[in-house]
Amino acid sequence: MDILGKLLFDLELSGFSNVTQNNYLYHVSQFAKYCKKPLQDTDIEDVRRFLHYMRRSKKLSAGTVNYYHTCIKFLFEVTLEKPWNDKKLPRLREHKPLPEILSREEIDVLLDAAINLKHKAILATVYGGGLRISEVVRLKVKDIDSKTMQIFIRESKGNKDRRTLLSEKNLMILREYWKNCGKPMDWLFPGEKPGAHMTVTAVRNFLKRVCKAAKITKPVTIHMLRHCFATHLLESGVNLFIIKILLGHSSISSTSRYLHLVNQNAFNIKSPLDLPIGDNDA
């Protein structure tokens, strides 16, 4: 068994999802191409040079470089059984700017601009349920439960299943799409290849066209619609812990980030400078 084959075996044994397995294999293969020698012959200095190259020469973000770090560390410690030194291979400190979001009015404009029923159904499902791009493309027809008004998401990030909201408007759009677009029986959003689901790249490409048609100049991504889902729910008074469950976050700290995106007027919050002074404060 070659090293990548052994790596795949170790990833499967560790219970990683198929998406994560493919991501690890891709990032490790990029490391192998850079080193131009067998993976079993690589050492810590090879990793240091590679990560430095990806950051300084390729100009990759700290988050992306850290993901390479995670994948190669697994390769070394589990598959190659080689020593790893966190002091010589520190993770980069990440600056995490607050994500930009669309207003509810802008969401309506975006959906109206999606003339293609399939595209509109995908965007409505992402925003209506707070899905990741990898989750929406892998939805199956049976995952849409109109009786409980829920969407079942299988083997998501962290190899976890969860349920999220199925909005009434989303259900109407999905039904219209299903009736008029071939009545798919397995994958909800089939791809061009027989038996395959729509690709992530195809979704990103059509989103650019829809944004152009909607004349939205903000840098819209599918993940931004997930941010919008969480922020708009928070503004409507939904408990933060409920939103955490719907998003599938492992930690409440990830969900708490949306508190910074909320329009404070939604909570009718006043600055203490504007609060009246009571008799007890005199």
Core attributes:
globular; 2 domains; three-stranded antiparallel β-sheet; mainly alpha; 282 residues; hpI Integrase, Chain A
How would you concisely characterize the structure shown here?
With 282 residues, the protein is mostly helical. It has 12 helices and 3 strands; from the N terminus they run αααααααβββααααα.
Describe this protein's structure.
- This protein is mainly alpha-helical.
- The protein has two domains: 77 residues, Tyrosine recombinase, N-terminal domain (DNA polymerase, domain 1, Orthogonal Bundle), CATH 1.10.150.130; 162 residues, Intergrase catalytic core (hpI Integrase, Chain A, Orthogonal Bundle).
- The chain is built from twelve helices and three strands, in the order H-H-H-H-H-H-H-E-E-E-H-H-H-H-H.
- Strands 1-2-3 form a three-stranded antiparallel beta sheet.
- The chain is globular.
- The termini are far apart.
- The model has no long low-confidence stretch (mean pLDDT 91).
- Give the CATH superfamily of the largest domain: Intergrase catalytic core
**Coarse structural class:** mainly alpha
Q: Return the domain count.
A: 2
Strand order of the largest sheet: 1-2-3
Instruction: Say what oligomer this is.
Output: single chain
| Number of DSSP helical runs | 12
Gross CATH architecture of the largest domain:
Orthogonal Bundle
Give a count of the beta strands, DSSP E runs of length 2 or more. Answer: 3
What would you call the shape? globular
Given as residue ranges, the uncertain stretches (5+ residues, pLDDT < 50) are none
Radius of gyration using CA atoms only: 23 Å
Give the class-level CATH name of the largest domain: Mainly Alpha
Major pleated sheet = 3 strands, antiparallel
**Beta strand %:** under 5%
Helix-strand sequence: HHHHHHHEEEHHHHH
Q: Provide the helix percentage.
A: 40-55%
